[in-house]
Write a structure and sequence with these properties.
The complex is a heterodimer. By secondary structure, chain A is of the alpha+beta class. Helices cover about 25% and strands about 25% of the residues of chain A. In chain A, helix 1 crosses helix 5. The longest helix of chain A has 18 residues. Chain A is globular, with a radius of gyration of 20 Å. The two termini of chain A are about 35 Å apart. Chain B is an alpha+beta fold. Chain B contains 6 helices and 15 strands. Chain B has a 10-stranded antiparallel sheet with strand order 3-4-7-9-8-13-14-12-11-10, sandwiched between helices. Chain B has a 3-stranded mixed sheet with strand order 1-2-15. In chain B, strand 5 and strand 6 form a beta hairpin. In chain B, helix 1 crosses helix 4. The radius of gyration of chain B is 20 Å and the shape is globular. The two termini of chain B are about 35 Å apart. The chains are: A alpha+beta, B alpha+beta. At the A-B interface, strand 1, strand 2, strand 6, strand 8 and strand 9 of A face strand 1, strand 6, strand 8, strand 9 and helix 2 of B. Strand 6 of chain A pairs antiparallel with strand 1 of chain B, so a sheet runs across the interface.
């Protein structure tokens, strides 16, 4: 019997239907042969773009001045207009092009999958996210910053086999982010507890959806996932803000993150994936606090979404997702992957 | 420079390229649709026994169910996402909510001809498809377990289809999907504040500005929405306010078939036969707020891959300004 499950944060329903898994032709083949464009030089090896920020290289075996490097995106989704302007257009609201889009080159070496970087290297990437997020919070017109990665063709990446991720600062709170914050606040108003903390308690007790744990973090497959093998990584200690929460724990986060990415890579034959780092919006006093309990009701986390199936008209039209493998099964499968 | 635009119905933001920097149709990846499974296609006439039993069909006089002689046909989905048998059993599981997956999942085979897509059918053939869809919606709405009937289509592999013979799908759900709820709530808020339907106001604004309109006929208007999620996204709405799709008059059904056919043909020509999805947004079963909601079709060609940023934020990035998209569609009339 299929099940309908509701995501407790945003209230999105998901159909868990194992029947659908028997349908032929639904899994996207990894397109690994297309990882690098034929003979085009990699733009991220010996990168010459202007440098916004970098961590200097400390590995004598690697010939590069930097270890992790941040540059402006060559194809920015948002650009910085000289002035922030809002206007109306009939019924519609419009903001001019105002935002920052940066690329984080995660390694000087031509390595495609972040799973293959060292823990020290991944830890440096998280340090860079922290530094950049703190810096971008200084522009009072920005409400939100997001760090994310597209790995592989099906995840929306260009065909360049060099590990990188992106940071975007935006003047609005996007709808899906707002949905999460509103869901967490509603729960907090009613229970006086953080929804994510409760979720971690239930998952730790249940165990069936836990993929792995480290000293400070836990990785679970969500009870109502949008994607098969989706993983949510949360800090065990309550903290709404990534910049504050990860301080001093970058090494532990890198350790569990590398393990999660490696389990996906080995278990699912190097799939395309996205990850998204969700942190609380900027909220200093002079920006006008949106609500007073955000420190207590929100909880930063990272969503990792392997892209194994295509999204069709039903999902696009309804926001309802169909998942053909229950998260209990995917968690078990990932736990049993033998790490190299 | 791009713009950040906010949809007035649900408050979704999108980053939209400006006209000068907009991608033309030729900037997007091309997809080739092969029709190679005709010899074994289960949706072709003569193989009726290979599908689950027929639920409804448009048939030539004298032909019986599950036999050849049909022009369009509805069967249960062989791999249903939801099951029709059983009771809706809602329960809690710690802090989670769960329910049995009761629902209906049907396939509407749009033509007996393996080699034609919906866009290639005549207006009268599309009228037949719409009539079947309406009949199934009316019939499924009588089942008290179902709260929402959703009609949608996937065309082409990258839009998620696994069967090349033209078909759409009907899913009956025991609850109202979130994206529809957001539209219902947004349009009801607007109605309470202004006493008008937001979709009617959008139609007014689009008619004044004209630049995003693709086609308009006697009863339906089609335009590229000002705040799209996807490039070349196109909506079709009844020009007169109505929340009801199921009981269209013969005249309006014909006009809808004509508008749908024309938009699909223009897309096919402009974008070189793209994969696409469309879905109907109609109110839930027995919805009472008929004055505030306006049913419509959203057609989204599958041209670009949705990346992590969109999935994580619900903030969509669209490289073709909708006015530019509409102009390209207007310049490619059906042959």
């Amino acid at each position: 019997m299929p099940e309908l499950r509701k995501d407790p944060v945003v209230g999105r329903w998901v159909i868990i239907s194992t029947e659908r898994a028997r349908r032929p032709g639904t899994i996207i083949d990894p397109q690994r042969e297309a990882m690098d464009d034929d003979n085009a030089p990699c733009p991220f090896c010996h990168n010459q773009d202007p440098e916004i920020y970098a961590i200097p290289n400390d590995d004598p075996r690697v010939a590069s001045p930097w270890k992790v490097r941040v540059t402006p995106s060559g194809t920015p989704l948002l650009k910085m207009a000289p002035q922030f302007k809002r206007r109306g257009h009939g019924l519609y609201d419009v903001i001019n092009d105002y935002g920052v889009h940066e690329v984080v080159i995660e390694t000087p070496e031509h390595i495609a999958n972040m799973a293959d970087l060292s823990e020290a290297q991944i830890s440096a990437v998280f340090q860079v996210y922290r530094t950049r997020m703190r810096e971008l919070s200084k522009d009072k017109n920005f409400l939100y910053v997001i760090a994310y990665k597209n790995y592989g063709w099906a995840a929306g990446s260009r065909n360049i086999g060099h590990s990188r991720s992106q940071i975007i600062a935006s003047p609005v709170n996007p709808l899906a982010v707002k949905g999460k914050m509103v869901g967490a606040k509603k729960y907090f108003d009613y229970h006086d507890r953080c929804l994510f903390c409760d979720l971690i308690r239930q998952e730790s007790k249940d165990r069936t959806r836990v993929v792995t744990e480290s000293e400070h973090f836990i990785a679970v497959t969500p009870y109502a996932p949008r994607f098969s093998f989706e993983i949510c990584l949360l800090p065990k200690e309550h903290q709404c803000d990534f910049v504050k929460g990860v301080a001093g724990k970058e090494g532990d986060l890198a350790k569990i993150f590398k393990e999660v990415l490696t389990r996906l890579k080995v278990g699912l034959d190097d799939p395309s994936y996205n990850y998204v780092l969700h942190t609380a919006p900027f909220r200093s006093q002079d920006r006008g606090v949106r609500w007073p309990t955000i420190e207590e009701d929100y909880h930063w986390h990272i969503e990792v979404m392997p892209r194994l199936t295509r999204v069709a008209g039903f999902e696009k039209g309804s926001g309802f997702h169909i998942c053909s493998i229950p998260p209990e099964n995917t968690a078990e499968f990932l736990r049993e992957v033998e790490l190299p | 420079m791009s713009e950040v635009r906010r949809d007035p119905i649900i408050g979704r933001w999108a980053i939209v390229a400006d006209k000068e920097e907009s991608w033309g149709a030729d900037r997007y990846d091309k997809e080739v649709h092969e029709r190679k499974h005709k010899a074994i296609c289960q949706f072709c006439p003569g193989r009726e026994s290979q599908t689950p039993p027929e639920v409804d069909a448009n048939r030539h006089p004298g032909s019986g169910p599950n036999q050849p002689g049909w022009t369009a046909r509805v069967v249960s989905n062989k791999f249903p996402a939801l099951r029709i048998e059983g009771q809706l059993d809602k329960r809690g599981y710690g802090l989670y909510d769960v329910s049995t997956g009761i629902g209906a999942h049907e396939v509407l085979i749009e033509t007996s001809d393996h080699d034609r897509d919906l866009a290639d059918l005549s207006v009268n053939e599309i009228v037949g498809v719409l009539r079947l869809a309406q009949n199934r919606s009316i019939s499924l709405a009588k089942d008290r377990r179902f709260k929402y009937i959703m009609l949608f289509k996937n065309y082409g592999q990258s839009a998620g289809t696994t069967i090349e013979h033209a078909h759409s799908q009907i899913i009956a759900l025991p609850l109202v999907p979130r994206d529809v709820l957001e539209e219902l709530e947004g349009s009801l808020d607007y109605f309470k504040f202004r006493g008008r339907c937001i979709y009617c106001d959008i139609i007014d604004q689009e008619r004044q500005e004209k630049e995003r309109i693709v086609v308009e006929n006697d009863a339906f208007i089609s335009f590229c929405p000002y705040v799209p999620r996807y490039p070349f996204e196109t909506w079709i709405l009844p020009t007169e306010h109505t929340s009801d799709f199921c009981y269209l008059s013969d005249h309006d059904r014909y006009q809808l078939a004509a508008a749908l056919r024309e938009v699909l043909k223009r897309m096919k020509k402009t974008l070189n036969d793209p994969s696409y999805n469309f879905y109907l947004h109609v109110p839930p079963v027995n919805y009472q707020e008929n004055q505030s909601y306006h049913w419509h079709i959203e057609i989204v060609p599958q041209l670009s891959r949705v990346a992590g940023f969109e999935w994580g934020t619900g903030f969509y990035v669209v490289h073709t300004e909708p006015g530019v998209a509409a102009e390209a569609l207007r310049h490619n009339p059906p042959d």
